[in-house]
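Budget justification aside, the reviewers requested a transparent look at the raw inputs and outputs of the sequence design task funded under Objective 1. We therefore reproduce one unedited record. The lines immediately below are the structure tokens for a 65-residue chain.
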């Protein structure tokens, strides 16, 4: 059985900009990861280190009564 050795890629400035931009647009983490060709875990971890929220759920606003 052949075991594939994983290579870690550094995050480029362009990828970080794209991550922040997509997060601001409330894009789900799975779609961001696919677009950046990264795993979802790697994308979430990078967002965490950058203090970027990947919460893609729409915010619930209370309507005044």
């Amino acid at each position: 059985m052949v075991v594939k050795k994983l290579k870690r890629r550094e995050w480029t400035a362009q990828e970080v900009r794209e991550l922040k931009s997509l997060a601001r647009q409330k894009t789900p983490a799975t779609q961001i990861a696919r677009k950046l060709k990264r795993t979802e875990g790697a994308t979430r971890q990078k967002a965490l280190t950058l203090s970027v929220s990947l919460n893609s759920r729409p915010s619930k606003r209370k309507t005044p009564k």
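The CA atoms of residues 5 and 54 lie 29 Å apart. The mean pLDDT is 89. Computational costs for records of this kind are itemized in the attached budget.
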